[in-house]
Amino acid sequence: MSTLPFLREIFDHCTRGAHLSPEDEPMFSALGANYPAYAEYFAALGFELVRHDREFFYFAPDDPQKTAETLPRIAVFAYILVDHAANQGEPVEDFILGRNFLASTLPHFSLERYAALLRQVDVHDAADLKRVLDQLERIGWMKWLGPDEFRFLRPFHRVFDKCLELSQTSAAPVAASETSAGSESASPGQPASP
Amino acid sequence: MKVNPQTFFNFCAGHIPVLRQLAERQGEISEAEIIRLIRDHASGHEELPETTWRRLRELQILVATEPGSGMYLLAEPVGRLLSYLFDEANPATPQMVRGYIDSLDALGKQMVRAIEADNVTFVGLAFQEINSTLRRIYADLEETQRAVQNEVAGFKVNREQISVRERYRRIVYWMDRFIEPMIEIVRPDGAMAAAFEETERLLHHAREQSLFNDHPALERNLRYLRLVRQHALRVFQECRKELRPLYESLRRASFIAAGAAVALERLQREGLAGWTPDFIVGFAQIQIRHVPGDAAIAMALRRVVEHPPEQAPVIALAGSTETPPALVRQFWLDALPAEVGRSLPIDDLLSWFAERYPQKNTAELVAGFTRLVFHEKFRAEFTEQQEREYSTADGSLRAHPLRLEPA
Fold first, then answer.
1. How far apart are CA B79 and CA B24, in angstroms?
2. I want to staple A142 with a disulfide (CB 3.0 to 4.6 A). Which of A18, A136, B19, B156 is the partner?
3. Residue B10 belongs to domain with CATH number
4. Cβ–Cβ of A93/B253 closer than 8 Å?
């Protein structure tokens, strides 16, 4: 057990809330190669190491009811981005994960509605938005490619998961009626059977 | 009224943009709109818009929705021709295909009666009608497939700003309206297969009864029957394959968008306070503290500075009018020597206490007893008498009688 490589580095990253994806070599490969052993090791310390379906790793929150003040900021930022992508008519996941963005052209202050939502979490201007992006980088959700350019990373799928969960729990009548299009199940997270 | 084909096509050749616009319009269109449309698409040739408008009606390209109405429709045959020319395929609805199947069923029943009555003429006519129906089915299937392909291509290349949820609704409409019900009809054990099998059986029967002697034509019809049946299933399976990936992708995107909208709407409506942790994407955050940072020190100072002052304690300066019980007790003890001095000698001191102070409790009596026994002016001596019991206000005492006399 004690021979697991990069234990300290992985622990340091994950306890800070970071998600480990292919951008985080060699920790990512080490985790991928021997996930059960790492999970068992960290479980003994009281940490749940999660391996996401989209192949990235993170520590599950110990108390979901306890929220640091940065989390609502990240959530509002992400939901606005999803909302904007949907309004453009683009497949949301492709739109967010399939391209590079410029911080200066993000849609977050393009609508007064968005700006009002951001104000509720103390994000007032481009500098505040930049701080949120830095926070996203620290948790492994995005990567700066230049002073202004960045792209989102695989762990951003956690936002999509949360959206699907909210969509399901809100039991929107429109969505419910639309799922009757085929014979597939009503679960939005599951692909329908052909 | 018959329309001269040459005149019709000559007019069409000179007014293609207008005709295209009319073909793209769905439903009724007013006279004013038509005039505006003609003006917007006026070509180089010398013709007044009013003339174009009049010719559109004369050539029966536009027909009034009802006599005297100011609303017009593109004539159905012209619409079909323009759809064909502009490659704008219209999908066949399940109702249309069901209509063909019903038509074949009805024709089949009539053929049974014609075969029983040896009605060669009717069998021949029915044969032609079956052939015609099959060709219409085939053509509609082809058009449906093209319509679906156009729709899918439109979804993929169309960059106009339509929300994901709107796109999803459209694709659901196509799946619901055309593809899924149609597959139900054309599947191997569906209504179309049953009608075709029955038609095939009747055609064979007519040949066996020698009511239809054009054997090559009959064979062609039978082959066509099988071809249409296979083609129908293939077309709609292909259509489903075309739409399915788009449907799945948009379905997931639509649900993701709906979830984000729910979260933002709740934040907008109830503020951050009403935003439960359910809307947050959580992750582990262990905060390990070492030397307190500037922020922590500033916060601690701020808490001290902003700590609300406590109220000073209030001392009750006004004295009570009642004599405290302890003081009363002390006065009684101090007065006892003078009191007992008037009764000396006393053979049984406890008996004296019990009779004189029946309201005193045991503790007070013992205190008074002790004060007198050890008082410098008195001498106390236990007698040889029997042990006795003495009642007090709250109990009793057992003791040998004690004699008290002046020292």
1. 9
2. A136
3. 1.10.10.10
4. yes
